[in-house]
């Protein structure tokens, strides 16, 4: 009776969504599980299944995880319309899978939190402000180019790219270089967390917190341990950055000299407290570093692979 009540409540609460899903094309479904069978296997198998479905679609389709529809938009022009719609700001419950690692940052927070802190961070993200960090980006890019220009046997160059990405992202966030004693630990963390997030996203049964924590408790323990170590480094950096901003520490050394432009530390200290009931600025620092670093490493690695 309880399950039936929950199901009927779900059908009523999301009746408009379900009505829209019924009008769209979808892959052949199986009883009870819907299209969940398409997500069995590793990420390569799942990606192949999704690409096959996308290539046969008209641009918008849905697939079913049991009774829950997921909408997929293939055309970038259609995606832009959706992303620019004010009615689409609220995030799906699926974003809760990121909160284990990224907390309640603007990437995963509900819309009422997102609106407040996205508005506060607007000065950091304006193109005119980003221009202040171009010299730092150019500097690390030149150093990476010099490293890659040295003739050597075929090898994995992601370590150099990762170091460059951490330096570039930290300079835009703290206006100075982030010093991490063991970059490989940070790289391991981002790589492992990325794999776990992708795995949890596509394996819908892992959306259940206790099940995910049970199956991957060893990986979670290791990741959270390294994350705490990185958080200590980040915490020390913004404290030193705040001191430099007040010009308590003079000096022209690039590692301690404050760069121009508004950074995330500036915004944080203008909007205290650091930790509130629904937000922690430390989550924003971690999200920015992880997001920027992972994007840069993926893009440049793919570029190098493409050009041979």
From TrEMBL:
Pfam families: p450
Any one Gene Ontology cellular component term annotated for this protein: endoplasmic reticulum membrane
GO terms, molecular function: heme binding; iron ion binding; monooxygenase activity; oxidoreductase activity, acting on paired donors, with incorporation or reduction of molecular oxygen
Chief location bin: endoplasmic reticulum
Keyword hit for Cell wall biogenesis/degradation: no
Membrane topology label: Peripheral membrane protein
InterPro entries (UniProt xref): Cyt_P450 (IPR001128), Cyt_P450_sf (IPR036396), Cytochrome_P450_Monoox (IPR050196)
Entry keyword set: Endoplasmic reticulum, Heme, Iron, Membrane, Metal-binding, Microsome, Monooxygenase, Oxidoreductase
Location in the cell: Endoplasmic reticulum membrane; Microsome membrane
Keyword Amino-acid biosynthesis part of the UniProt annotation: no
PANTHER family: CYTOCHROME P450 4C3-RELATED, CYTOCHROME P450 FAMILY 4
Entry's family note: Belongs to the cytochrome P450 family.
Protein name: Cytochrome P450
Organism: Homalodisca liturata
Organism placement in taxonomy: Eukaryota, Metazoa, Ecdysozoa, Arthropoda, Hexapoda
């Amino acid at each position: 009776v309880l399950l039936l009540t929950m199901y009927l409540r779900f059908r009523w609460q999301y009746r408009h969504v379900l009505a829209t899903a019924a009008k769209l094309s979808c892959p052949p479904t199986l009883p009870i599980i819907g299209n969940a069978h398409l997500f069995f296997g590793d990420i390569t198998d799942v990606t192949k299944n999704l690409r096959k479905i996308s290539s046969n679609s008209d641009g918008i389709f849905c697939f079913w995880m049991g009774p829950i529809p997921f909408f997929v938009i293939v055309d970038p022009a259609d995606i832009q319309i959706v992303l620019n719609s004010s009615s689409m700001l609220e995030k799906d419950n699926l974003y809760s899978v990121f909160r284990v690692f990224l907390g309640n940052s603007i990437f995963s927070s509900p819309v009422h939190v997102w609106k407040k802190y996205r508005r506060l961070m607007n000065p950091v993200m304006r193109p005119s402000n980003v221009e202040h960090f171009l010299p730092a980006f150019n500097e690390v890019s030149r150093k990476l180019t010099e490293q890659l220009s040295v003739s050597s046997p075929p090898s994995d160059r992601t370590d150099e790219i990762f170091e460059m990405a951490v330096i570039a992202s930290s300079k835009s966030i703290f206006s100075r270089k982030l010093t991490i004693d063991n970059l490989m630990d940070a790289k391991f963390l981002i790589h492992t967390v990325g794999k776990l997030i992708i795995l949890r996203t596509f394996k819908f049964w892992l959306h259940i917190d206790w099940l995910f924590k049970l199956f991957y408790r060893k990986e979670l323990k290791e990741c959270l341990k390294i994350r705490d170590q990185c958080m200590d480094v980040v915490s020390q950096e913004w404290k030193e950055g705040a001191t430099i901003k007040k010009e308590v520490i003079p000096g022209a050394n690039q590692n301690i000299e404050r760069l121009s432009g508004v950074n995330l530390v500036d915004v944080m200290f203008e909007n205290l407290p650091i930790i509130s009931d629904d937000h922690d600025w430390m989550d924003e620092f971690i999200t920015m570093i992880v997001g920027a670093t992972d994007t840069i490493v993926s893009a440049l690695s793919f570029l190098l692979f493409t050009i041979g």
